[in-house]
Amino acid sequence: MGGLSMPPKPPGRSHTARGTRAAARPPQSFTGSARQARVMVELEAAERVAWLRLARPEALNALSSEMTAAIADAIERVAAMDEVTVLVVAARGRAFSAGNDIREMAGLSREAAEGLATRQAALMDRFAELPQVTIAAIDGYALGGGLMLAIAQDLRIASDRSKFGLPEVTLGFNPGYGIARLLDVVAGGHARDLMLSGRTIRATDALRMGLVNRVVAPATLEASAGQWAAEIAAAPREGLAATKRLVRAISAGERGGEPEAYARALATPAARERVRAFAERTARRRSEGREGEA
Question: Which pLDDT tens digits describe the chain residue by residue (294 residues)?
Fold first, then answer.
């Protein structure tokens, strides 16, 4: 299944992959297919947060055909995790992803290149379709398709040593996917600069442009991403999913339908309970003369 590895889950919560087998020793329960395929993606979930880690560090997590298939497989597993509210996309090694695999690209026919780019474009769109909020935790290089993978997530946090760029034009071709999303995430002038210059920028510049939401020290990246994810996951899943659907529709030029979505979400048990609890807290503070306190 594209090299999917899944660490063990808490009791009562098992996510296993067809065609995988148990590892010889912990902490990872699944290490590859029956053909001993190389592990390319690790997936784990706990406390309403899932982590999807690219695990091809020797190739800077390049998005080969095999890696693309592994990520697609993992996304479908996340989509089926009703208990998960937030997905963090991270990577092993010194790169988030250096983009498409140059060695593979050199041997692709025109038809094969178009097919791979089409599958990768669909992969990026699939993140937007997930009910979970997605966060990219970026450490190191995020170049070409790796940058497009980062901006396919709802939010982005990066280490201050990260570097970003779209070097495709320097090699003689255009980005194969993600341009519309890039234009949506950052101001048009900055997006054009990245695409037409092919230059690489630092995390501080990415923050200034709005390409990332937060920049932290490398040593604190995973903890900071985890804390951010936990804060978001504390909210009811239904409201987050509804808001994400609205953003996607409006970004695509469609009618958002905020009033209808608001009414549907408000009618869910989770929203009803939170509204009731909030009203009770407000009434209690008012009676105690503490109105206005958080």
Answer: 445 544 434 333 434 333 222 233 233 322 333 334 578 999 999 999 999 999 999 999 999 999 999 999 999 999 999 999 999 999 999 999 999 999 999 999 999 999 999 999 999 999 999 999 999 999 999 999 999 999 999 999 999 999 999 999 999 999 999 999 999 999 889 999 999 999 999 999 999 999 999 999 999 999 999 999 999 999 999 999 999 999 888 888 887 777 776 777 777 887 767 776 665 676 676 777 766 665
For the chain, the C-alpha Rg in angstroms (whole number) is 21
Contact 164, 210 (CB under 8 A): no
Helix (H) or strand (E) holding 51: strand 49-54
Tell me the β-bridge partners of 159: 216
Secondary structure of residue 231 in the 3-state scheme: helix
Residue position matching structure tokens 């990246």: 221
Which CATH code is given to the segment(s) 4-233?
3.90.226.10
Name the residue ranges covered by the structural domains of the chain. Answer: 4-233, 237-287
pTM: 0.82
The two tokens of residue 67 are 């890696």
- Phi and psi at residue 3, to the nearest 5°: 80, 45
